[in-house]
Amino acid sequence: MTVRLDDVDRKILSLLQQDASLSLDQIADRVGASKTPVWNRIRKLREAGVIRKQVAILDPEALGLEACFFVLVRTSEHDKDWAGRFLKALRDRPEVVEAHRLAGDIDYILKVQVRNARAYDRFYQSLISEVKIHNVTALLSMEEIKASSALPIPEGGHR
């Protein structure tokens, strides 16, 4: 379903991406509209699936999760049963904060947030005990340069 976004919708989405804890009054004030039309717009954006959910973004270091690994996975298995077990293994592990299936030489890339290298090794040993993986390369992030959950909001009215 294609959703047409006007300037007010884009402003609302931009504000919510920056701080979803803003009150309806604050959002309405910042977009130059009254509260009820802004509430209706937000409701419609949720119903259309443009706004999936609102969450709190936590600081990994404040939680003692100081090691971020990007894990490149190659597999020789591509059948439905293996894929189901692999996806379940990823979903069952909260330390996997992102997972993507890729085109090219690497089949999957995982973002894994853990306390340290020992915790990563426990994750790795657990994963390979559940599913057969041809090759795994783990890359330790030395420094996070940019991280954002905010998406660019396209001009021209289309999602």
Structural notes for this entry:
The protein is α+β, with helices and mostly antiparallel strands. Helix content is 37%, strand content 17%. It contains five helices and four strands; from the N terminus they run H-H-H-E-H-E-E-H-E. It has helices at 7-18, 24-31, 35-47, 80-91, 117-130, and strands at residues 67-74, 96-101, 108-114, 135-140. A four-stranded antiparallel beta sheet has the order 2-3-1-4. Strand 2 and strand 3 (108-114) form a beta hairpin.
Key terms:
alpha+beta, four-stranded antiparallel β-sheet, elongated
Helicity level: 25-40%
Give the helices and strands as they follow along the chain: HHHEHEEHE
Structure class: alpha+beta
> Main sheet, how many strands, which sense, barrel?
4 strands, antiparallel
Low-confidence stretches: none
Per DSSP, the total helix count is: 5
> Which range does the strand content fall in?
15-25%
End-to-end Cα distance: 9 Å
Average pLDDT metric:
95
What would you report as the Rg, rounded to the nearest angstrom? 20 Å
Strand element count: 4
Give the CA-based shape.
elongated
Strand arrangement within the widest β-sheet reads: 2-3-1-4
How would you briefly describe this protein structure?
The protein is built from five helices and four strands.
